[in-house]
Predict the structure.
Amino acid sequence: MKNRVTEANIGMIVGKTFSGLNANALKFLLPLWLSPLTGATFRCVFAALAFWVIGWFAKPERSSAKDKLLLFLLGAFAIYGFMFLYLLGLSKTTPVSSSIFTSLQPIWVFLIAVAFFKEKVSVLKVIGIALGFGGALLCILSQKSDDMASDAFVGNMLCLFSSIAYAIYLVVNKRILKRGVGLFTILRYTFTGAAFSSIIVSLFTGIDAPLFTGTFHWFPIAVLLFVLIFPTVITYLIVPFALKYLKTTVVAIYGYLILVVSTIVALLVGQDRFRWSQMIAIALICVSVYLVEVAEGKEKKKESGASNNSETPDIHLLHGS
């Protein structure tokens, strides 16, 4: 078990680092080398193909036709909507700002649970949500458009909506997992649905990828391959494994690596400028997510009386990017 815990910790570090770098890599590609819509198509189709191939080597998983159809529709709307909105928003704002809104996903999941599944509301959770909204509002209102963010307000709002779309996916995904549907079944059919939507949209809009026209450009192609293989496929495989062996609070803390990595890299390579308002927004959102997770962990501990080692992992800690 100790080896598994160590592997899980290493996996979370690697997976969240990939997620952080994903924002920087995509910012480099968009929109100069790829249009946001084309980038979403590449990611969805590549992931679908990858998960089908990997799934052939996994143990057979049982699922009903109804579950598969629901997963397909979930991918067609929620996953594709998340991918497209996120890439379009990132093309207009900075990697740091986009990562700020990605980190709000646990807050949206909780609010959806309150609205539709009668989740308990505590004072600690209300304070956490208020801080999260304060951080998001500070980021939206304080950032101005410049040479690094062509339309900061629109880009930030699109990233905000993308985090809501991914939160919807996580809520429905969690309920499907409770039915006993296997991980590879979920990944295969949701991304197949996302790939279907992306292909249909691309048939009408066409593929806009200057990367593949004219002279061979090895560096942007290498960056694209990184995005397709590591944040898009490997991270989605690593995190569920880690959730089996780590406490939810530990996984939540690792989620902050997305913000840290993306911020450090963006400042180092000139994709963003240091702003105190942005740092304050990051701090507020980190504290907000932590408070919500701590409050939820306390409630579950009271309800189940379970030990730390048997704590049930929460799917909403899987930050998307």
Residues 2-317 form one domain.
